[in-house]
Amino acid sequence: MSNQDVIAAVASPPGMGAVSLIRLSGTGVFEVAEKMLKRFRKDDMRPRYTFRDDVLDAEGRSIDDVLVVVYQNPGSYTGEDVVEISGHGGIHVTRRVLERCLECGARPAEAGEFSLRAFLNSKLDLTQAEAVMDLITAQTDLAAKAAREQLSGNLGQAVASMREEIINLVAHVEAYIDFPEEDISPDTGAALEASFVHLRDVITGLLGTARRGRLLREGARVAIVGAPNAGKSSLLNALLGFDRAIVSAEAGTTRDTVEEVLDFEGYPVRLIDTAGLREEGSTIEKEGMARARQRMEEADLVVELVDASQAPGARLAEGALLVLNKTDLGEDGAWKDHEALRISVLEERGLDELRREVAKRLGGGAVGNSGGALIAINARHQDCLRRAEESLEEARQMLVSGEEPEFVSLPLREALHAVGEIAGRIDTDEILGSIFSQFCIGK
């Protein structure tokens, strides 16, 4: 990728639609626009003003009737001069307009290159750039809210504060390297120790959001397990609001897993209906039961569904959410002292309570956003924070044991490097390439 080229890409979803959007960015973008647009003149253009124009081919014939908006650097998404062309959303005409952009001097944008340029031009830090893709792929309101808050800089600000505090620690410790005759005073040592404790608490708090971040980005796997005819497929259909799984009184109807994604109080949940678990069964049914047990092992949460009108049997999954179904038929007296959710799929009773309880367990006790900043770190952030945590603890122990400042300084700088990776405050091309390669073309 060259940061000097004019790049172009279709920024709207692929396929046919009412409107398509083509974005161009880079030094010389206005000259490219002059070549391809009938009335566009860079000396006359008005930033952030929409005007109508025609995209012309090399012979001067109109390809499409379009709307054009220009943004001058640095007041654009990328921090460069930008032109956005909105045209008709046909597949052929969109391709022809993009081809004309390339004929007039632009080159095709790489995946994530617009956001990479925004990062390189200090319009976004790395956490905000990642949030752009999180917002695009968000499946629920809560996931979108978390992405918007990260895009607004909540995580970046927390990381910047940590980084500043570590820099101060490094400065204090390395000051004593220049004056070897000076010992670290008790007061200074206590202040340094307090900074270590504060940083540890901040990192612990951020690491505590990693699971929520994974669930919001990837969705939670929730397996419904139980004996045949407990109502698993009926429960899936009731939660979906339409018949997705086959329901029959015949045991062993579900032979394979059936999966659908739902919104449970803001968490995207992949609900998995599994084969009924019992001792006997045909060869095919046993394969279905084996797959059910595999889904149980892989699930973030297991919902164990039982027939409330039948006496309790052996539990199928330790730590599972126990749900008593068919309460409309009456409840066997042996269930009296069992802690469980009571529902009736047939009468659609208790389903909202089930949704809330699933979300509560997935969220570690909180349903949705319980207030404050909704920070949800990703796997890369988690790795950086864990390395920073380990290095800070190593430096703290050295300081307490009276090690020389030179030795204390080394793990401190490792912690500073690890924290800097989160927001991209270090020169690491490998990290940038890994992150931005995951973006869609045009973003």
What is the secondary structure topology, with strand pairs?
Elements: E1 7-10, E2 19-25, H1 29-36, E3 51-56, E4 62-71, E5 82-88, H2 91-103, E6 107-108, H3 113-120, H4 126-137, H5 141-151, H6 154-175, H7 186-207, H8 210-218, E7 220-225, H9 232-240, E8 258-264, E9 267-273, H10 283-298, E10 301-307, E11 321-325, E12 341-342, H11 351-362, H12 379-400, H13 405-423, H14 429-436
Parallel strand pairs: 1-6, 7-9, 7-10, 10-11, 11-12
Antiparallel strand pairs: 1-2, 2-5, 3-4, 4-5, 8-9
Short summary:
The chain has 443 residues and is of the alpha/beta class.
Mean pLDDT: 85
Which H/E pattern describes the elements? EEHEEEHEHHHHHHEHEEHEEEHHHH
Q: Major β-sheet, in short?
A: 6 strands, mixed
Shape: flat
Description:
- It is a single chain.
- This protein has 443 residues and is an alpha/beta fold.
- The chain contains 14 helices and 12 strands.
- The protein has helices at residues 29-36, 91-103, 113-120, 126-137, 141-151, 154-175, 186-207, 210-218, 232-240, 283-298, 351-362, 379-400, 405-423, 429-436; strands at residues 7-10, 19-25, 51-56, 62-71, 82-88, 107-108, 220-225, 258-264, 267-273, 301-307, 321-325, 341-342.
- It has a 6-stranded mixed β-sheet with strand order 3-4-5-2-1-6. The protein has a 6-stranded mixed β-sheet with strand order 8-9-7-10-11-12, sandwiched between helices.
- A hairpin with a 2-residue loop joins strand 8 and strand 9 (267-273).
- Helix 4 (126-137) packs antiparallel against helix 5 and helix 12 runs antiparallel to helix 13 (405-423).
- The longest helix is centred in the middle third of the chain and has 22 residues, at 154-175.
